[in-house]
Amino acid sequence: MRPRALVAVGLATALLTGCAQSVDPIERLGRKAAQRVGSDGPAGADARPYRHWGLTAPLPAPPRRQARPAAVDPNGPLPVVRRVPTSDRVVFLTYDDGAERDPRFVDMVRELRLPVSMFLTNSVVGPGYGHFARLQSVGASIQNHTLDHPALRGLPYTGQRAEICGQQEKLHARFGIRPRLFRPPYGTYDTTTRHAAADCGLAALVLWSTSVEDGTLERPLRAGDIVSVASGEAAGPSLTERTTAVLREIERRGLTVGKLEDYL
Q1: Where are the beta strands (DSSP E) in the chain?
Q2: What is the CATH number of the domain that holds 232?
Q3: Per-residue pLDDT tens over the stretch 187-228
Q4: Residue 22 shares a structural domain with residue 88
Q5: N or C: the chain end with fewer CB closer than 10 Å?
């Protein structure tokens, strides 16, 4: 090659090298941003969502358990559960009615992977079933709380069965599932309630061992507690804020949130 051509090639190489060196840091940043998108979601997204929800660390994963459907005697009443007898360091978060549809609660359940249980009443949910479909899609379970929320105790069998079985059919039509768990409105029931719920294909009548009102727990949490988080309150903290208060107490007690259906 001629000397002049060699000089031209050398200059071109130097210019290309210089350009490559000048954009290299930007390329590196671009690669890092792409890696963040692939691993944690959009660039700049919070990789520690627990801090966003007021926790100091992620809640521990609950123990791995196979769901153990309760053995139901077809000729006997449904078992009643107020608290789960377990040595696992878990509590269970439950929500009734479906009156409060806080969109931030869907984000909380998704980001913290909370296995919450929603006991829905058809007349209360009204046109809000789409909200609970979103909750179901991020890990919440849907359970039965009657069609119209009457106090069942003392009602005849036919009326109780219509309320319970009717909601089973509504939830099957809306979500494609038939719930296994039933919570009677106001926590009131009788032997007829237990027989009617069993006849509707349910496996357990679930009450609660402690509740949350205005973001305050009735008492300190213990392993196995079924927590009823009030919803639909006209004033005071939102559903998300009430749940945050419970999660902080769960963290303080060294507990985590379990999936109720895995224990019943």
Answers
A1: 80-81, 90-97, 117-120, 141-144, 181-182, 204-206, 210-213, 216-217, 226-229, 256-257
A2: 3.20.20.370
A3: 999 999 999 999 999 999 999 999 997 778 999 999 999 999
A4: no
A5: N
